[in-house]
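User: Teach me something about this protein's shape.
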Amino acid sequence: MEAAAPQNLDDAAGPVFSEEALYICFANLCLRGGREGDIRLLLRAARVSRAWLKAVHASLPLVPGIAFPAHVTGADVLAMLMRVAGANLKTVCLEGCRQLSAVDIGRILADLAARCPAVIEVNLTDCEEEAILRALAVCAQTTLGAVSLADFRALLLAQAEEEGASRCPLARLLERLCLPRLLLDADFAPGRDALRKAVECAIKDAAAVYDVLLLLLLTFHPAGQDETITFDSNQQFGGRKRALHLVAEAGAEEWKDGGPALLASVLTLAGTDVNATDGNQQTPLHVSAAKGSEAACRVLIEHRANVSAQDEVMRGRIFI
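Assistant: First, the predicted structure itself:
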């Protein structure tokens, strides 16, 4: 998207049209659908004069749909959504916008909910998987009316195909999502490293804890493949570390912000073995004790981490 119109516009510059004529012209252009080229043309027209700028700004909320170029940033999208905000916007196309992060998508969806209540579809085809997961988590929370992590888990599992199922197929969730509908690649499935990335993100950003829980509760069925992809809270990463080891390694600032504590709750809720060891035969409690993280140690103990009186590391670091 192009920058806003420059200051000091000269009303005498360019062709002279009545204000009504300008509005009709630009309104018709907006009603054509908000294609990227049309929006670009409108933003250029806004530079002609103050009268043109006023007519463009009055017309933009009539756009029924808007598409963004692949190089767009989160700030660009939010700035443009402020201009087209209103009850007429129905579709937002972010296809191929791979610079948008999970945080960007969270902010965009929140902005759409606040400013553009009539949006029925957001196209996230070929976006980054972290951004897609955040969109799924945000829309699932809204649709299900989840008010807590435990609530989110129970309500999401209630959408599963079979009674008592431990996971919900992605296709089933997409069918259940209310507005806005999310348009994804037919074969969308996160990479094998998705859980580690989501856990590392959630350590620094508590909002991503829902992304982690979503990965642990969904099944993914890539188009044309027989394989079903799932994620397990006990799976091992590099050095045979597990998700809870990464949580135990978090620094004091992250623990202060609350992300690791929420993650510990999510992981144990999902059946994590709190006493599982890594490649160095260290449990998450060993790791947090060695770092001298009292907050981490207390949370892990609350989740029934085993404290051995014979363990020198524990004896020196943990006070019960």
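Now, about its shape. The chain has two domains: 64-231, 234-313. The radius of gyration is 25 Å. If you'd like, I can walk through any region in more detail.
User: That's plenty for now, thanks!
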